[in-house]
Design a protein that fits this description.
This protein is of the alpha/beta class and 299 residues long. 46% of the residues lie in helices and 15% in strands. Bound molecules: flavin-adenine dinucleotide.
C-alpha cells in the first residue's frame, strides 16, 4: 500500500525507523528488532540507507523486503542519491519493485567528507528534488521527503530552505518526515510557514527518545537541533545512570508526542535507534490517546 493512502485513511499515522546493523555479520539482530516492533502495529517501518553511497553491502532492500513480505507491515525504504549514478539508482529501483517495496524516502544524503571520495562527474543527482523527479517518472512509487523545522544545517536561511522544500513537494513528494526536534514550538512555527506556502501534504513529526548522552551529542552536532534548557538539565543529571536517563528520555519523548497529537499532528515518526523496548514503552504511554484519535494500536 502507498503510505499516502494510509494518511488518507487514518490519522495520526504512527511509524518507526530502524537502521541496518553496521556489521553485516550482525544482521540477525535486526530481525529480532523487527520481531519486537511488529506487535506494536505501526503503520509502517522505515529502513535507513547507508551513508556515503556504499550500496554494495547495503541491506536496506533485504530488510525492507522482510518487513513487507514476511511481517505484512508497510515498508519505507530510504534512498540517498548524491554519490550515485542514474544506472545505480535504476538498479536499486528495480530491486525495490521486485521485492514489492512501493514507498521510498528520497534523500540527497550527507556529503562524504573524505577528500578522496569519487563522486560521479558531473553529478547525476545534486539534491533530493532531482531524485524525486527521477523516481516520479517511473510512476511506480509513493515518495516521501525530509523537512527541517529548525532549517537544514547547510542552508543559510529558513526562507531559502522552505523555497527548496516547496520545489521538492511540487516535484512529486507525497508526504514529509521531519528532522528530530526537542522543542515542539519549532515544529509549530514551521508548520504555520508550510501552511502559508500551501504545502498541503502530510508532515510527520520525527521524535527521538534520548537514552544516552553521547548519542544525542553526536546527532545534534550533525543536525543542529536545539536542546531546551529543561532537557539539558535532565541529560546532565542522569548521564551516569542509564536506567534513570532511559526513564527520563522516554517520559520527555512521550510528553512531546502527546502535545503534538493534541495539536493535530498528522503523524509521529519514532527514531527507534533499533531499541524496541523504548518504542514499546512509548507506544504504551500513548495508546489510549491514539485510540481516542480514532486509531487502535496494540501494546
Ligand atoms: P535536500 O532536500 O536535497 O536538501 C539539502 C540541502 O540542499 C538543504 O539545505 C536544502 O535547502 C538545499 N537544497 C535543496 N534543493 C536545492 C536546490 N534545488 N538548489 C539549492 N539548494 C537546494 N541520510 C542517509 O545517509 N541515509 C538515510 O537513510 C537518511 N535518512 C534520513 C531520514 C530523515 C527523516 C532525515 C530528516 C534525514 C535523513 N538522512 C539520511 C540525512 C540526510 O541525508 C541529510 O540531512 C542530508 O544532509 C540532506 O538530505 P535531504 O534529502 O534532506 O536533502
Amino acid at each position: 500500500m502507498y503510505i499516502k493512502d494510509i494518511f488518507s485513511k487514518r490519522k495520526p499515522v504512527i511509524s518507526f525507523e530502524i537502521f541496518p546493523p553496521r556489521k553485516a555479520s550482525s544482521i540477525d539482530t535486526i530481525y529480532r528488532t523487527i520481531d519486537a516492533l511488529a506487535p506494536l502495529n505501526p503503520d509502517y517501518i522505515s529502513v535507513t540507507y547507508g551513508a556515503g553511497g556504499n550500496t554494495a553491502d547495503n541491506k536496506t532492500v533485504e530488510i525492507a523486503s522482510i518487513i513487507k513480505n514476511k511481517y505484512n507491515i508497510e515498508a519505507l525504504a530510504h534512498l540517498t542519491c548524491i554519490t550515485s549514478t542514474k544506472s545505480e539508482i535504476d538498479n536499486i529501483l528495480e530491486k525495490f519493485k521486485k521485492n514489492n517495496i512501493n514507498n521510498i524516502l528520497a534523500l540527497r544524503g550527507d556529503i562524504p567528507q573524505d577528500s578522496n571520495f569519487k563522486f560521479p562527474n558531473p553529478l547525476h543527482f545534486e539534491h533530493a528534488v532531482d531524485l524525486v523527479k527521477y523516481i516520479q517518472k517511473s510512476n511506480n512509487f509513493c515518495i516521501g521527503g525530509t523537512c527541517y523545522p529548525e532549517r537544514h544545517i547547510e542552508c543559510d536561511s529558513m526562507e531559502e530552505d522552505l523555497i527548496n522544500l516547496k520545489d521538492k513537494v511540487n516535484s512529486g513528494t507525497n508526504f514529509l518526515i521531519s528532522q528530530l526536534f526537542f522543542d515542539n514550538n519549532f515544529f509549530y512555527n514551521f508548520k504555520s510557514k508550510t501552511d502559508k506556502l500551501n504545502i498541503n501534504i502530510p508532515i510527520e513529526a520525527g521524535i527521538m527518545p534520548v537514552i544516552n548522552k553521547k548519542q544525542i551529542e553526536r546527532i545534534v552536532s550533525l543536525c543542529g537541533s536545539n536542546i531546551p534548557e529543561k532537557f539539558i538539565k535532565i541529560i546532565d543529571r542522569y548521564e551516569n545512570n542509564p536506567e534513570a536517563l532511559k526513564d527520563a528520555g522516554i517520559a520527555y519523548a512521550t510528553e512531546q508526542i502527546i502535545d503534538l497529537l493534541s495539536s493535530g499532528v498528522e503523524g509521529i515518526h519514532i527514531y527507534t535507534m533499533n531499541n524496541p523496548e523504548v518504542a514499546k514503552r512509548i507506544v504504551r504511554n500513548i495508546s489510549s490517546i491514539v485510540y481516542a484519535l480514532n486509531r487502535n494500536i496494540a501494546i
